[in-house]
Design brief:
By secondary structure, the protein is an alpha+beta fold. The protein has a domain of 100 residues: 3-Layer(aba) Sandwich (Aminopeptidase). Helices cover 29% and strands 35% of the residues. The protein has four helices and seven strands, in the order βααβββαβαββ. Strands 1-2-3-4-5-7-6 form a seven-stranded mixed sheet, sandwiched between helices.
Length: 144
């Protein structure tokens, strides 16, 4: 299967684009920052041809066994086209194969149906709910 994206170390230009996406009201409404981040491994999401930075993803609050996953496709031109699914699959591969994790989990707002659909396509299952910083989240996990 040929993937539509690749992951790479973020550049300064990537970070500047991320800042612009972070202040987008619609993106903020779908991807709220809640909780504390103790450590993280960030990647820029780049189109497979290497021409366009379209988002970012991370494994964070990791230890030897598990991590949380976060992803944002900031460029709206790439929404609903499978780019988030491919990036999630690559990040899962990195977490399980490179980091040796046994469990990767995430929290997502219940109204972010597009994200939930993406996570389910990638093999995540719903495991519960989490109230954090005034938000209600659905929690999902994937085990090795």
């Amino acid at each position: 299967m040929e993937l539509k994206v690749k992951l790479q170390e973020p550049t300064m230009m990537d970070a500047m684009r991320e800042t612009m996406w972070y202040v987008d009201p619609e993106i903020q409404s779908l991807d709220v920052a809640a909780g504390v981040v103790h450590n993280s491994k960030w990647f820029s999401i780049i189109t497979a041809d290497g021409d366009h930075h379209i988002g970012a993803c991370t494994l964070y609050n990791y230890d030897a066994h598990e991590a949380q996953l976060g992803i944002r496709i900031g460029d709206r031109g790439y929404w609903n086209l499978g780019y988030g699914t491919d990036a999630t699959l690559l990040l899962l591969q990195y977490g399980f194969e490179v980091m040796g994790l046994q469990r990767i989990w995430l929290k997502v707002l219940p109204e972010n149906i597009r994200a939930i659909r993406c996570y389910e396509k990638c093999g995540f299952t719903r495991v519960g709910k989490l109230a954090l910083d005034g938000y209600e989240f659905v929690t999902m996990e994937k085990r090795r």
